[in-house]
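FAQ
Q: What does a multi-component entry look like?
A: The components come first, one per line:
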Amino acid sequence: MVSGFVVPGLEFLVFLKMTIRPNIINQYIPNIMKQNSRIILIRDDITKLNVDAIVNAANRKLAGGGGVDGAIHRAAGPELPEACRKLDGCPTGSAKLTSGFNLPAKYIIHAVGPVWRGGNSKESEILESCYKISLEIAVQNDVSSIAFPNISTGIYGFPKREAAEIAINTVSSFLEKSKQPTQVFFVCFDEDNYKLYYELLRNK
Ligand code: ADP
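Then the predicted structure of the entire assembly, as tokens:
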């Protein structure tokens, strides 16, 4: 009679099999690491990350807004709008630095992405410039670890696949030429972007 018999040490496995549901397993998709582990893909809220700098998808007035910008402003606290006001805005395609205030991150790099206007208004070049200038600012400020959201792919309407290709290619070519930053996180919040980045990075 073997029913009810559990091999010592395997109780945990039986427990796992009974309790894991597909949506939980989903969260354990391994994060992808590329470029000798310097590029890391994660699905998370960027405001929670303990990195040297997070990049904000900001607007030209640096006035705070919805989406990731709103989340960063809420988490950084009331000193952030004050610091942003002193910067006197930021041109599209460029970026500016502030302290991270109440965030775990030391700095916020506010990058102003392009609004999608159909693709003939230099949107791709402007988005590329956001990533490049953010990385240059990071190097100038001794930032070793930096986290990017999927700039312009929310309210600004940039097609997600094209934006992901630009982000990955721009960061990869920068890292080929520069020793810093040592870690670049692509932080996806929505599932579409996470799947796209996963596919593009896996096949790179
Ligand atoms: P944009 O105006 O540049 O399009 P959005 O904030 O609307 O900026 O969207 C940019 C991306 O940020 C979107 O892919 C959205 O899913 C993502 N996002 C929203 N909130 C967060 C967050 N807390 N952490 C990371 N990414 C976020």
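Q: Is there any commentary attached?
A: Sometimes. For this entry: Confidence is low (pLDDT under 50) at residues 1-29.
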